[in-house]
Design brief:
There is one protein chain. Helix 3 runs parallel beside helix 4 and helix 4 runs parallel beside helix 5. It contains 8 helices and 7 strands; from the N terminus they run E-H-E-H-E-H-E-H-E-H-E-H-H-H-E. It starts with 7 loop residues before the first strand and ends in an 11-residue tail after the last strand. The protein is globular. It has one domain: 3-Layer(aba) Sandwich (Rossmann fold). A 7-stranded parallel sheet has the order 3-2-1-4-5-6-7, sandwiched between helices. With 256 residues, the chain is an alpha/beta fold.
Length: 256
């Protein structure tokens, strides 16, 4: 099935984890891929290898999404490479673990600039391209269950994801007349490098699994599948929504 034949997807943070799974899923369904990251390393080479293995083309842009001029350059380079962008996936994100009273300004800025400001201005650049060329487009933000669920010691992260939720809801209304849909995907606990500490600690892992209705962590491919659905015409009447991919974590409840 090639739902994205002759389309181009721009994915931030595509070097590993969920980002790589998104790149590969879109490539499997026919899209050519532009993906970004801060470092050009073996992870990037592996994503390129997996994308090209499907027969799709891959182009990597080394850039820092927290810098607005870099964001505009990303879009220009993507357009110079493929001539179009049809799908934007705002996937890149970081988190910093610190009690609220110990959070430094530089830490706050790093999280907000990457997770929220970068997403905001990259989306703006994409919308300008779509509007100026009378095209349609789809935006999916890889948010988090923590746009809804409290996460002590990660307050800047939660603030950034809560902000992402409201940007998405607002843009769903504002961009609909332009033929642009936008939705969030909110992953829960997924087997990615960001969760390496939990995955390597049996006690922490057991506690976490007990809070997940399905009793297991998700795979990056679980998230990529929902993002691909939202980007496709199968979801052509879906905008302004958050889709939770969390195994039941967010609203988990059991009788004691």
């Amino acid at each position: 099935m090639e739902r994205f034949k002759e389309k181009v997807a721009l994915i931030t943070g595509g070097g590993r984890g969920i980002g790589r799974a998104i790149c590969v899923r879109f490539a499997q369904e026919g899209a050519n891929i532009v993906f970004t990251g801060r470092n050009n390393d073996e992870n990037v080479a592996e994503t390129i290898r997996q994308v090209e293995e499907t027969g799709a083309k891959a182009h990597f842009i080394q850039s820092d999404i927290s810098q607005v001029p870099a964001v505009y350059s990303m879009v220009k380079e993507a357009l110079d490479t493929f001539g179009q962008i049809d799908i934007l996936v705002n996937n890149a994100g970081i988190e910093i673990n610190a009690p609220f009273w110990e959070v430094q300004e530089k830490d706050y800025d790093a999280v907000m600039d990457t997770n929220l400001k970068g997403m905001f201005f990259l989306t703006q650049a994409f919308v300008r391209f779509v509007k100026e060329n009378n095209r349609t487009g789809v935006i999916i933000n890889n948010s988090s269950v923590h746009e809804e669920l409290p996460f002590p010691n990660f307050t800047p992260y939660c603030a950034s994801k809560g902000g992402m939720q409201m940007v998405m809801r607002n843009l769903a209304v504002e961009l609909a007349p332009l033929g642009i849909r936008i939705n969030n995907v909110a992953p829960g606990a997924i087997k990615t490098p960001i969760n390496a500490k939990i995955l390597s600690d049996p006690a922490l892992l057991s506690t976490l699994k007990n809070n997940i209705s399905l009793g297991r962590l998700g795979e990056p491919e679980d998230v990529a599948a929902v993002i691909a659905f939202l980007a496709s015409d199968d979801a052509k009447y879906v905008t302004g929504s958050t889709y939770y991919v969390d195994g039941g974590l967010t609203f988990h409840y059991t009788e004691q």
